[in-house]
């Protein structure tokens, strides 16, 4: 188990991690999500042992993780950390880059493991290709295979799919996280993409300005976001004043995703269409409410600009999604 206790870290007299505390169960996958510059990468470096903490402590399986001041070679031996930058051997093949971290005493087993990892990263056809001839996204996938070859107890990933082509991301996510579950490898990964979190994380840590502001399951945070910032990490969100809804007597704002609203002739809200955006299987419609608030809704068809439409909303969610400004 990973335990992070009241960690404080400052960089050039600016606190980049403030009183961070959480734990991660063995074999589980935990996501750190938040806007750029919130401290995600710094937290991963602290967990790996690349930083000397100002205050607090970090333990992996009851063994304290110490920083560079206590280690000639920083980095906990039972963990592997893959940053956004990779360290590959450009003039050797993809297979050779992976085999570098496998046992040379058992050549047949090493060959099987290499093929298995090439399949995980979807690069069997590039086994004999030199790394220097790969794209940035392909190099990132090889770097992923390298850290998996080392069989860490805890894998730390920093934006692992950042440079991967969109059409490959979903399959690669499934391959990587299924492999980690199969091997019972604990994973802590940082991302700004909610898709990484929603389908593959058991636990989600939300960071803002160096602070941990939420720690829950992705489902709980999505269904009951405690504030606008957290809701906006998942997708576009409507931030509507409570006064718009006749069912509510309290003040505040209501957070509703566009997909939760419906265009219906008996809807209680009347809005005017401002702009439609084609999104493949639907149109994303920007509208204006009577109090000049923007409201977003999905539509199966393109709607005329300036036309009036009626919107229905899930009344049972209003109280649950009512938060303070």
UniProtKB/TrEMBL annotation:
This is ABC-type Fe3+/spermidine/putrescine transport systems, ATPase components. SUPFAM superfamilies: P-loop containing nucleoside triphosphate hydrolases. Residues 2-234 form the ABC transporter domain. Keywords: ATP-binding, Nucleotide-binding, Transport. InterPro entries: AAA+_ATPase, ABC_SmlMolc_Importer, ABC_transporter-like_ATP-bd, ABC_transporter-like_CS, P-loop_NTPase. Pfam families: ABC_tran (PF00005). Signal peptide: none annotated. GO terms for molecular function: ATP binding; ATP hydrolysis activity. The keyword Nuclease does not apply. Gene3D superfamilies: P-loop containing nucleotide triphosphate hydrolases. It comes from the Bacteria.
